[in-house]
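agent> step 3/5: call structure_predict on target 'Fibronectin type III domain-containing protein' (Paractinoplanes hotanensis).
agent> reason: downstream docking stage needs a structural representation; sequence fetched in step 2, passing through unchanged.
tool.input:
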Amino acid sequence: MILTWDAAPPNGSDITAYEVTWTAADGATGATTTGGQARTVAIGGLVRERPYRIGVLARTAGGVGVPAVVEAALPSRWITVHRGADTTYEDKCGPPDCAYPYIELFGFPPRTEIQITPVASAWGRFNVGAELTTNDQGYLRSRTRFPFSGVGQTLWVDVGDTQSNRFLWPEKGP
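tool.output (status=ok):
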C-alpha cells in the first residue's frame, strides 16, 4: 500500500520525521519512520481485505503532534497502469510520445479470459481492447498492447467493474 499525506503544520519547529503506524483488526501491528520532507511511504506485508487503522504523526524538536488516522483495507483485486516501452505504431504514434502501457492485474480468477479496455481522458475508449488470460495465480501482465501517445492525458483500463489507477501520460519514459 502506498500512503500519502499533506505536510503537517510545523508549529514553530521544523518537522524532523513522520511516524506511520498500522494496526489490523486482529491486533497485528507495524510501524515505520520517514524523513521530515517525506509525504509518502510504502507499507508492505498488509493482507488483502483485512481492515487496518493507519496513523501518521509528525515529530519535531519539541515533540510529536496528534496523529491523523484513517481506516483502510486493500482490495481483493487491483490493476496498475504506467508507461512501458517506447514504440512506433503506423504513422499515428511515434517517439518520444508513443509507448505501450504496462498493465498488471492481480487477484483475478486463475486461468480466466479477461477483457481489458483502455480509456483516455480526452479520447475515451480509444481501442476495442483485448481478451487476455490470467495465469494460475490470477495474475496478468500486458506490455505490448494498446500503443498510446496522448501526452498530458490520463490513461486507465477498465476490466469489468474494476478500474486501474489513473496514470498521467508523460512525453517520454523514465
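agent> step 4/5: record observation. The domain at 78-168 is CATH 2.60.40 (Immunoglobulin-like).
agent> proceeding.
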